[in-house]
Amino acid sequence: MTIANNSAYYEIDPLSAFSERGVDYAKYRPTYPPNVIDTILRELGEPSQLAAADVGAGTGIASRLLAERGIHVWAIEPNTSMRTAAQNHPLVKFCDASAEQTHLPTASVDLITSFQAFHWFNPQPTLAEFHRILKPSGRLAIAWNQRAADDEFSVEFDRLVKASMSELPTTKPQNSVARILMSSSHFGRVRRHTFTYKHELDLVGTVGYALSKSFVPQEGAAHRQLLVDLQELHARWADERGMVSFVYHTTLYLAQPQHGLNKLRRLFSNWLIAK
Fold first, then answer.
1. Is the pLDDT assigned to residue 4 strictly greater than 50?
2. How far from the centroid of its chain's Cα atoms is residue 208's Cα?
3. CA 262 to chain centroid
C-alpha cells in the first residue's frame, strides 16, 4: 500500500487496509463506556421504537451496544473481513454498503452513529447522505477512543506500533471533525463530550490489538520485531494477573440535522463570515 504525503484516511482504500484483520478487531478492540451510549440516546425517546444506522460498523462493537438498549440497528460496513468476524445480534442487520451510499431509505433512521470510523469517509458526500437518511428529529453521533497522552504505558505502546509501520497518513483522524461539522450546511448544534475509559488485555490480547490496526505489518521483519517489543513491554507493565490497562479518552460529537429555515440561516451566516 502506497500512501501519499498528507493523505486523508478516506483517500486510502479501507477495504485493503483492514483486509484479514476482522478477527483480531472483534476480539481485542476496546468497547465504549456506558455513559457514551447514555449521552447519545438522551431525549431521543423509547429505544425500542428507534432505528439507527451505525456507519463504518466494523465488527459491530458499537452496533451491539445500541442493540442491547433495544434499538434496531442497520450496521453499514463495506469490509467483508469485518462483517464476517461480527457476532450476531437479533436487532443488528449488517449491510454491505458505504458511508457515502448507505442504500437506506430517505428519513428512515432516528440516529446515525460512527465509532472510530468517520475519518475513513469522504466528509462532504457522507454528510449529505447522513442528512438524507436521518429523520428531521434525529441525531448524528461521531465518536473515537483515543489512548491517553498522559498514560505512560499507552504512549510506549503507540511508539512501538508506529515504529513498525512503513507508511501512515500524517493527518490525525479526529482533528478536523468539529470543523467539518461546524462548516456543514447539513448539520448544526454541534456539541462535544469527553469520557475516560480503561481497557484491560493479557499478552495475547495486547498483540492482537496491535495487529488489528490498519497499517501494522502482518508479516516480515518489522512484524517479528513488533512481537518481540510487545512481549517485553507487556512483561514490564503487567500486573499480578498478567493484565495491562490501556487508558482512553472517548470523544463524542453530537449534531442535529439542519432543515428549512435553519439551514438557510446557517448558509447566510457562513456567507457573512466569508465576506
1. no
2. 18
3. 29
3-state SS string over the chain?
A: CCCCCCCCHHHCCHHHHCCCCHHHHHHHCCCCCHHHHHHHHCCCCCHHHCEEEEECCCCCHHHHHHHCCCCEEEEECCCHHHHHHCCCCCCEEEECCCCCCCCCCCCCEEEEEEECCHHHCCHHHHHHHHHHHEEEEEEEEEEEEEECCCCHHHHHHHHHHHHHCCCCCCCCCCCCHHHHHHHCCCEEEEEEEEEEEEEEECHHHHHHHHHCCCCCCCCHHHHHHHHHHHHHHHHHHCCCCCCEEEEEEEEEEEEEECCHHHHHHHHHHHHHHHC
Region 93-109: mean pLDDT is 97
pLDDT in tens, 147-172: 898 999 999 999 999 999 876 655 55
Question: pLDDT digit string (tens) for 184-230?
Answer: 999 999 999 999 999 999 999 999 999 988 788 888 999 999 999 99
Q: 9-148+170-197+247-274: what fold?
A: Rossmann fold (3.40.50)
Which range has the top average pLDDT, 16-30, 133-147, 254-268?
Answer: 133-147
Residue with cell 470523544: 251
Sheet holding 72-76, edge to edge: 92-95, 72-76, 51-55, 109-115, 134-147, 244-257, 187-201
